[in-house]
Design brief:
- The chain is α/β, with parallel strands linked by helices.
- The chain has 11 helices and 9 strands.
- Strands 3-2-1-4-5 form a 5-stranded parallel beta sheet, sandwiched between helices. Strands 6, 7, 8 and 9 form a 4-stranded mixed beta sheet that branches.
- A hairpin with a 2-residue loop joins strand 6 and strand 7.
- Helix 1 crosses helix 8 and helix 4 runs antiparallel to helix 5.
- The longest helix has 21 residues.
- Bound molecules: xanthosine-5'-monophosphate.
- Xanthosine-5'-monophosphate (XMP) binds next to loops.
- GO terms for molecular function: GMP synthase (glutamine-hydrolyzing) activity.
Length: 317
């Protein structure tokens, strides 16, 4: 009979045995899987686990610092790396969604490789791979797939030659959550919506600039905080905002404005493979629309996406 507590006990014992006094490097994403993997390995080997959390400049508003602080509170040996400029320059001028994904994946690998070289005598790479990632044979998603699609270019980065330790590779998502909960991972990490690895870069249609990221972060934060305030956050699978590459006419006093359009997207789903648009209350949508237009400079129109997957995807890129 599987229980989270017994999984933790046996896994920690097995990790101790396997890793011994070696060092492990692990990239934290802020998501549930990498966080739980880190907690298990940390419980087994303590400060010999070196965690790296990269700020790619494409995260939600204030998320990097908030998540970094909570990792530190959990006792993890974590280094926050500000690589925002590196990601922005890699993205300059790119508009094709797959080109943006590739540039982000490659930059992540460069940053991670550089950081892992700073750890002396590291011999293991820890990963938060879960069972569905293992069985998903043809995957175009996620950091490990990103790594796969790059490891032919100029040979493997050194960290990919490390031995791999994946303590969650037999678990499903709900089991990972149960393990995280039993180890005291905070609810705000456990209950968070999925968020794509390329982050806001695939929610800004067209090219990425720091200014567009800043606008979208404000819009997204108002939407997400509104969902939380109204008790709607846990009722949807995923929510976010898209910044569209068009402007539309508005009116302010006697003046006509010509400003940006944002699309809000919230879906219900079981696994992200299919999804229905979330039937959020009209009164909520009305309030959020007003709040966004009043507070976010440069945005004069808000639309709500009422498409289901398939054929529409959850993300717009
Ligand atoms: P779509 O847009 O394909 O998204 O319906 C399904 C789920 O996958 C996430 N997603 C990604 N996650 N890298 C990721 O790590 C990506 O490039 C990526 N693209 C989409 C999306 O947020 C949703 O949860």
């Amino acid at each position: 009979n599987w229980t989270a507590d017994s999984f933790v006990d046996t896994t920690v014992a097995a990790l101790k045995e396997k890793i011994g006094t070696d060092k492990v490097v692990l990239g934290l994403s802020g998501g549930v899987d990498s966080s739980v993997a880190a907690m298990l390995i940390h419980r087994a080997i303590g400060a010999n686990l070196y965690c790296i959390f990269v700020d790619n400049g494409l995260l939600r508003k204030d998320e990097f610092q908030g998540v970094l602080d909570s990792y530190k509170t959990l006792g993890l040996n974590v280094k926050g790396v500000d690589a925002q400029q590196q990601f922005y320059s890699a993205l300059t001028g790119l508009t094709d969604p797959e080109a943006k994904r590739k540039a982000i994946g490659k930059t992540f690998i460069d940053v991670f490789d550089q950081e892992s070289h700073l750890i002396e005598d590291v011999s293991w790479l820890g990963q938060g791979t879960i069972y569905p990632d293992v069985i998903e044979s043809v995957s175009v998603k996620g950091p490990s797939a990103t790594i796969k699609s790059h490891h032919n270019v100029g040979g493997l980065p050194d960290f990919m030659k490390l031995k791999v330790v994946e303590p969650l590779n037999t678990l499903f998502k709900d089991e990972v959550r149960a393990v995280g909960r039993s180890m005291g991972l905070p609810e705000f990490i456990l209950g968070r919506h999925p968020f794509p690895g390329p982050g806001l870069a695939i929610r800004i249609l067209g090219d990425i600039t720091p200014e567009k990221v800043a606008i979208l972060q404000e819009v997204d934060a108002l939407f997400i905080n509104g969902l939380k305030r109204e008790g709607l956050y846990d009722q949807v699978w995923q929510a976010g905002a898209m910044l569209l590459p068009i402007q539309s006419v508005g009116v302010m006093g006697d003046e006509r404005t010509y400003e940006r359009v944002v699309a809000l997207r919230a879906v219900t789903s079981v696994d992200g493979m299919t999804a229905d648009w979330a039937h959020l209350p009209y009164s909520f949508l009305a309030d959020i629309s007003n709040e966004i237009i009043n507070k976010v400079k440069g945005v004069n129109r808000v639309v709500y996406d009422i498409s289901s997957k398939p054929p529409a995807t959850i993300e717009w890129e």
